[in-house]
Amino acid sequence: MKRRDALKNLGLATGLFVATPTIVSLLQSCTSDVKTWIPDFLSEEQGKVLTRFVDIILPKTENLPSALELNVPQFIDKYIVEVVEDEDKAHIKTAFNNIISVLKPNAEETIDSVTDENYKALLDKHMLLKDEIDEEREADLESLIPTKSEFLNSIKMMTISAYVTTEQIGEQVLKYDPVPSQYYCGDLQELTEGKAWSLDNSLVI
Q1: Residue 154 has pLDDT above 50, yes or no
Q2: Are 41 and 182 in contact, with CB atoms under 8 Å apart?
Q3: What is the pTM of this model?
């Protein structure tokens, strides 16, 4: 139970967070160009790894901006700084370093030499499905350090959560309703043209 509580505090149990005004404001404050971005919490190397994962998870498409264009890596870094407890920040650092040691087993290599194929292979191996067993967790049930699977899944879910919470996606792509907690009765296709609600602030029955 202690491990689960710790992971929940990190936002690592699900990778999700509640889109409170504070969180939205934090996300909107992230305006740095990813090419010149210097992380507040993560090391430069860890920031590059996070950036590559985020871009692979939600790349630019013909009709939608990438998560990088919406400053999602910067938000995740700020979220850790502003929300996560100091003790838990150390666990995040360790989890990042564990991932980096897999990406570049030779410490003398630079993280820039790691290819997208290497990142994707790591994701394919460790992004377990719901019913698959996390052998790393099974080997140490009490560890407070997220396993590779837990950590990568949390990065994926935080990336998605931050992306759909951004103003551009929330108001221009999803169905946006500025009045929270309204109730609608009807067909989703008719009410929103099949779009999900922005910020999940309305309930369709």
Answers
A1: yes
A2: no
A3: 0.73
